[in-house]
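Quick one: NAD(P)/FAD-dependent oxidoreductase from Nocardiopsis rhodophaea, structure tokens please.
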Amino acid sequence: METIGMEEDVVVIGGGAGGLNAALILARARRRVLVVDRGNPRNAPAGQVHGFVSRDGTPPGELLAVGRAEVERYGGRIVPDEVRAVRRIDFGCGETNPGNGFEVELSDRTVRTRRVIAATGLRDALPDIPELRERWARDVLHCPYCHGWEVRDQPLGVLGWQPMAVHQALLVRQLSDDVVFFAEAIDDEDRAKLLARGVRILDGEVTGLVIHDDELRGVRLADGTMVARSALFVPPRFVPNDASLSGLGCEREDNGRIRVDASGRTSVSGVWAVGNLVEPGALVVTSAAAGAKAALAVNMDLVEDDLGERERV
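--- reply ---
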């Protein structure tokens, strides 16, 4: 495998809103920045991005295309590839290679860099219900803030397949007077909350969706009952895409996610993690802001590194 010489100040893993915003700020600070993006954004199935002031309603692909062009305008580089591993190495001394850094293994080459920002997001794990994945981000939805306005005042459902579903149903009720909670298991306290909020509760297992003319028309229960609904909210289980960092030994929270400080700095010196990778509920605008905060911290960290090297020389 080819190893490219130490030419990058920062490698950003992931080219979503968080990664691109970090790269933009670092490139404008005249840092050598490489973004590695495997090109499968989590929000690709969605028609539009919402909650991002001045960009509300923009298709996700268009938002990313504009972001990539902005990064490249300032000299940042973007490559379509996948990071297989990140390893710490010692570059030795010298003004061009101060201190320790990292090797970032891609599919057919290895890149050396002084700092790493991981913005690799997460995967949505969904229940095994026929056609549910195919309807994802269309009329099977995960976020009231991202998709709620578009289905307001319609007959809505919330799939109660995990504890987060109760919280989501309380939010969805703000969108419509007709909300059904499909309860696989629910305790008395949560049941009382939903009823007080005006959410109708149906006990029973959901086994399928009713689709007609490529639109969701209802939810089918195990006993054969069909409940007419035009959209179904399904809170996914979040699975972080953090395999590329697994060899670094980053400390983790009790929930298994990588532990970071307010700037996204991990317990491993020189490595930051931002966006949905460490904050599953982050909106697109939240991830972009996290990328900005990390970029500011990384740039200052590099400045201090340069000063320390000059003092040693």
